[in-house]
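Discussion board: Methods & Data

I've been asked by a reviewer to show the raw model output for two of the constructs in my manuscript, not just the figures. I'm not sure how much to include, so I'm pasting the format here to get opinions. Each protein appears as its amino acid sequence followed by a line of discrete structure tokens. Is this the kind of thing reviewers expect to see in a supplement, or should I convert it first? Here is construct A:
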Amino acid sequence: MKILGIESSCDETAAAVVEDGRKVLSNVIASQVEEHKIYGGVVPEIASRRHTEAICSVVEKALSDADCTINDIDAIAVTYAPGLIGALLVGVNYAKGLSYSTGIPLVPVHHLRGHIAANYISDEALKPPFVSLVVSGGHSHIINVKDYTDFEIIGRTRDDAAGEAMDKAARTVGLPYPGGVNLDKVSVNGDENKYKFPVPKVADSKYDFSFSGLKTFAVNLVHNASQKGETVKAADLGASFIKAVTDLLVSHTMEAVKDFGAEKIVLAGGVSANSRLRRIMEEKCKSKGIKLYKPELKYCGDNAAMIASQGYYEFTAGKKADLTLNAVASMPITEL
């Protein structure tokens, strides 16, 4: 069964064809990073316009690269939530038009479910149940994945997402967009014990996260040093900041795994590409006898292959949409 996936939730216009939820036949991405870099972050209006300009050619190339036509496609899977509303609308409306004109079933896919599914195309042996740590620029969740379409939220951030906090720390020390990626690169040569960050705790939940305090601590640290005529090395602050964030992510996830009796941990989302997070999680899982699954780096960021993969499981579970499907900016992964 071939699924055409369409993704446009932020600043990547993407399309892919995936067979039986696991085999990637094509994966095309039109990135806007260079254009948004001059603004220091994604400008929603610009992102929406670029999606409109790119989506036709991206879908056509995805079909061509997969050596098939639209008539070979069994279902069209599209990200409809969550994300930038204007950006989402481009993908959703294109998918609806394509479905209407061809009669091919339309399958709505939640963006975070897609990130988890990136692991299905990275490792064909992976099957639920498992606990997944989903971390990106907009989301930080610990999810109990009971089945391919059955999710339970264990923990989540109460304020900023981990990726958002990393981006802010990167901007604070003058690193360009995309901040988290560049912070990871410079931190390789930094001293992660140079600055001692606080350990945020959420009083009523041992699984929930809070990253806003870490972000504020970094800003104040740089500001106070500047007032004294001192310089904060980006490598040292980056390494110390990433240590604080990743230690929090790992400790809470390991706590959830212990309490829920899970035997597998799955990393997902853009921040799952962070080198220290992958390394420390690998070490912890090895010491506890837990199997760790990590998406290939090319599938960590937003892409349509992950949407097509999850779309396959949604479709086989009977989930379809009609032409009333709309984009939704914010929606929990547990939506029906």
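Construct B, same format:
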Amino acid sequence: MSRFFARRSSGRSVGDLAADEVKPTVDDYSELFDESAEQRKERYHTVVNHYYNLATDFYEFGWGRSFHFAPRRRGESLSASLLRHELFLAARLSMTSGMQVLDVGCGVGGPMANLARHTGASFVGINLNAYQLERAKQYTSDLGSQCRFIHGDFMQVPEADGQFDAAMNIEAIAHAPDKTGVFREVFRVLRPGGGFAGYDWCLTDSFDPANEDHMRIKNDIMKGNGLPDIAHTSEISSALLAAGFELLETRDLALESDPETPWYRPLQGRDLNLTSLPRTPIGRAVTNLALGVGEKLRIVPEGAQEISSALNAGADALVDGGITGVFTPMFYYLARKPLASED
């Protein structure tokens, strides 16, 4: 929240937006969710860029540099679980020094930076949102040529065929309008035998589209997290196969969380320490209240509180999705491009 106050002199107030651009962007983003999923998929560039211009500062304030969840172990801190979750992908892909790895939807580069430091591999991150890439370059500045970034669309990766030894996705492909399409692009840029591992946001077998509460949860998750739609776990597996991959492993890692520390615990207010406060319902309510006061005093831009409210509704829906079991943010898959692939 302090960034809204500290960045006023820079001419920007939220993401890449000037103060007078915030409210119109919030309004346009909100109207996208009055449209159908197919219409949002057609405008996914707008959905993604609006969302991350509006939400990135809030994410960094509440979550740090790794914008994802993890299956936690009893007694394990959130930060430790996030790193372990990232290192799990590195282990499944056998990441080592000298490998070239594509990070599909790299966010602000937190997981990439961690894996570059731990494995010695080199990474290329692709992201549609320029503001997030600006942050990512700052956070990986000490890694030199080990981390490179592309401002672009992972539906059309501007890299040569067979360029990468491996690819990873940490909760980013949920934004893709066409899962088979994005998987085909990843398939194309991998060398034969290259591995692709990731975590995706999905509906589970417990989801019932005829259940009004389940649909409320789905819709609030989408709006609060910049998603044009949410795929079922089976759709991810089918899309990987349709793209040409060999599917080696799939499972919902949310089911592997310790019952006392489910993946959604950070959003429930059950982690009692100062660093967790911004993620809790109380901390989020205080932030929302402060932003409302700031708007009235004209020290934060109009629309900031509305962003906070939408993110809060999305966070509450994530908790509901976890408790009911109708949603998972960590449907894990490990796939491989066949050695005998015909490109």
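Answer (T.O., handling editor elsewhere):
This is acceptable in a supplement if you add a one-line summary per construct. For B, something like: The first strand starts at residue 100 and ends at 104.
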